[in-house]
């Protein structure tokens, strides 16, 4: 692991991330490396709305290492989205896979574009039956599109 040292705090990089505080997290973001960032992400995943996650959110507002900040922000957002976010991601992937506009996909599965938008954003979670229908429809449309493209060659 890259040598990382904390200054002016009682914690060390070997201590649990929960003991690092704002200064330790900022130092790890700015001067740490992948193993340090993985430890931060693991802590955030364990408690997406806990102390480390809240401190990390503050750190990300002031840290200057753009790539690291972007990656940690995505991980924090993903951890906070939880299952609802995972379902929203599956809905978004189904729409993309279908090769239809969101409005056309909504009509195809029998819902309104505005309702589909709430599923895609994670504001509302579709039933398991509707999610299954979305994924099956997307797969069928993608297969039809592929067969059409092969025939046109």
Write up this protein.
Helix content is 72%, strand content 0%. By secondary structure, the chain is mainly α. The chain folds into two domains: 64 residues, no CATH class; 71 residues, 434 Repressor (Amino-terminal Domain) (Orthogonal Bundle), CATH 1.10.260. The chain starts with 20 loop residues before the first helix and ends with a helix. The model has no long low-confidence stretch (mean pLDDT 94).
The share of residues in helices is over 70%
Q: What's the CATH topology name of the largest domain?
A: 434 Repressor (Amino-terminal Domain)
Q: Which of globular, elongated, flat, extended, rod-shaped describes the shape? A: elongated
Number of strands: 0
The SSE order reads: HHHHHHH
CATH class of the largest domain: Mainly Alpha
Report the span from N to C terminus: 53 Å
Which second-level CATH architecture of the largest domain applies? Orthogonal Bundle
Supply database-style keywords:
72% helix, 153 residues, 434 Repressor (Amino-terminal Domain), mainly alpha, 7 helices, single chain
Please provide a brief summary of the model.
The chain is mainly α and 153 residues long. The protein contains seven helices and no strands.
Please render the helix and strand layout as text:
Elements: H1 21-31, H2 34-46, H3 51-62, H4 66-98, H5 102-109, H6 113-121, H7 128-151
Helix pairs in contact: 1-3, 2-4, 3-4, 4-6, 4-7, 5-6
Organism: Luteimicrobium album
Protein name: HTH cro/C1-type domain-containing protein
Pfam families: HTH_31
